[in-house]
Amino acid sequence: MKQTTIKTQKQIMTVFLLIYILNCTDLLFTYTYLKTGIFFEFNPIMSRLLVSPYLTILVKIILPAIFIIYFFFRLKEHSTSSLILCKIGGMLLILAYTFINSLHLYYLIHFLSLSL
Q: Which residues form the DUF5658 domain (predicted)?
């Protein structure tokens, strides 16, 4: 296996772990905000899932963790070009989740400033 492929595989796993962390923080922010009664879930799919905490944890935490573990063991079977495409897609997801988490932080700061 080429050195670039190993490097790309490590980068992809780092990207996936970062996506997972951002996904979990998104859930934490969302759940906390919904408990205040002031905010609502903008995503129509998630708004249906948030009815059940068990379903939410399954979809947002357990299934992605299983996917990452599965993908980790299958990573060596992919070509370098497909790994690069996967890395690009992962980086786009990181951008999206960073934007979403930034919005959450903005609302947190705004909400806290109103309550002072």
A: 17-109
